[in-house]
Design goal:
Layout: H1 3-13, H2 17-20, H3 30-38, E1 47-52, H4 57-70, E2 75-78, E3 90-92, E4 95-96, H5 99-116, H6 120-134, E5 139-143, E6 160-163, H7 171-174, H8 178-186, E7 195-197, H9 202-215, E8 219-221, H10 222-225, E9 226-234, E10 237-244, E11 250-255, H11 262-278, H12 285-292, H13 295-299, E12 306-310, E13 313-316, H14 322-338, E14 344-348, H15 356-362, E15 368-371, H16 382-390, E16 396-398, H17 402-412, E17 418-422, H18 425-429
Parallel strand pairs: 1-5, 1-6, 2-5, 6-7, 7-8, 13-17, 14-15, 14-17, 15-16
Antiparallel strand pairs: 2-3, 3-4, 9-10, 10-11, 12-13
Length: 439
């Protein structure tokens, strides 16, 4: 098979959550264990960092990968889903997995695929682990897909487990209360392995403490150890000052990932670096600071408060659930306060299995809306989105093509306005970047 034929085989042969939703989710690790056993358990041949959370785990993963790279470690990075190309999911020092390896690996495990019928995600995890082992990475940063406890990635024994935060998402799979969702995420905490929790809620803190106690694992709450004393934001960067509650030391960090919400991810990342130091990794603050200022070029991260055009400001953000949208709305309010007369235009599409009504209820009625959809079966059709939004007194046109919606919004926007594309990773993935290059 060619690379393209291989990708089509993986997409069509295997149940894929990003396309069909919950039907593709396997609530146990049997297939993953069988796959990894069949290829010699490559996950045992490299060190790793494991990251779960409702929001922020992608940004946190990329920041940590950039830091490890800058310290000279050959660093694997596994994230999902991809925006444009499947190979974005599996990187080493920012370089995508080799297409020839994908073809060879898929051909080799075809008999196992036919026998046990794994999901797309299960095969992708096995592929990533085999690539990292073959390439002899020093460490790999591994992002969970869904949850944690039963996630296919939860077969590793990492150097550190990180949970960014807990919020409402995938309740149909993870639980109907925040403690239930937290318990699933906390499932990545392993016996004797240190863990960092970035943000917690009163009803979730005990869940983490109980799991860490059961595992005899040290537990570090970033929000308890550091307060965020100062924040400075530009469209394409964010600077913060952290105060260490124990020593009263001030730490300054700047990242090239714009978006006010990155302040919490920065705090989580810095806390994680301290935990890695305690575990024997000789990380240095100047190299951390250097890495954080160039996360995008080092790792190839896209879609997190990503500015494509400056007049009007065109921003892409993969926010797609209640917590993510709340964070983006805070950013929009901030920019309106900083720029008198700025109007906000929202290009938005979502997938059917999100809590769409809760998201729509958050959105300001005074914004201009352009409803759209990604080209996949899970997508909520744009006219349906338009009708559902109207029930919340949000009005706008419906577009079946993402770039048509953006073109209309950009035409309607004044030079000082802001156009935001959000609601789904898949909507952001369909943006024609060459058409909207930074100017």
């Amino acid at each position: 098979m060619t690379y393209q034929q291989t990708i089509e085989y993986l997409y069509e042969r295997l149940p894929m959550f990003t396309r069909i939703g919950a039907a593709a989710y396997k609530k146990d690790l049997h297939n993953t264990i069988a796959l990894l056993d069949a290829i010699g358990n490559p996950q045992q041949r490299f060190k790793s960092i494991h990251i779960a959370g409702t929001n922020g785990k992608g940004s946190t993963s990329h920041m940590l990968a950039a830091i490890m790279q800058t310290h000279g470690y050959k660093t694997g990075l596994y994230t999902s889903p991809h925006l444009v190309d499947f190979r974005e999911r599996i990187k080493i020092n920012g370089d995508w997995i080799d297409a020839t390896f994908i073809v060879d690996f898929t051909n080799r495990i075809k008999p196992i695929i036919e026998e046990i019928e794994p999901s797309f995600f299960e095969v992708t995890v096995a592929m990533a682990f085999e690539w990292f082992a073959q390439q002899q990475v020093d460490i790999a940063v591994i992002e969970t897909g869904l949850g944690g406890r039963l996630d296919s990635t939860n077969i590793i024994t990492p150097e550190l487990s990180i949970i960014t935060n807990i919020g409402w998402d995938h309740m149909n799979l993870l639980g109907n209360t925040l403690p239930e969702i937290a318990a699933e995420k906390a499932g990545i905490i392993k016996p004797g392995i240190p863990a960092v929790v970035g943000e917690y809620l009163p009803e979730t803190k005990d869940v983490f403490m109980q799991q860490a106690s059961r595992c005899n694992s040290s537990l570090f709450f970033a929000a308890d150890a550091f307060s965020i004393a100062a924040v400075h934001s530009t469209p394409q960067a964010l600077s913060i000052t952290l105060n260490n509650h124990e020593t009263d030391e001030a730490i300054s960090l700047t990242t090239d990932l714009g978006g006010l919400y990155q302040q919490y991810n920065l705090r989580t990342v810095y806390s994680s670096c301290l935990a890695l130091q305690k575990a024997g990794w000789p990380l240095q603050l100047p190299l951390m600071q250097q890495a954080l200022q160039q996360v995008k070029p080092l790792t190839g991260l896209h879609g997190r408060w990503e500015v494509l055009h400056t007049s009007p400001l065109l921003v892409l953000d993969v926010a797609h659930n209640v917590n993510g949208i709340q964070q983006v709305l805070q950013q929009l309010e901030h920019w309106q306060q900083q720029n008198s007369g700025m109007q906000i235009h929202i290009v938005m599409g979502m997938v059917r299995d999100k809590d769409i009504d809760q998201v729509l209820a958050l959105l300001p009625k005074e914004y201009s809306y352009y409803f759209t959809q990604a080209q996949l079966p899970r997508a909520l059709p744009a006219p349906d989105m338009q009708q559902q939004a109207a029930q919340h007194h949000l009005h706008g046109q419906a577009f079946t093509q993402v770039n048509d919606a953006i073109a209309t919004a950009m035409k309607a926007a004044q030079p000082k306005d802001l156009v935001l594309v959000c609601g789904s990773v898949f909507v952001v993935g369909e943006v024609d970047r060459t058409r909207w290059e930074v100017k």
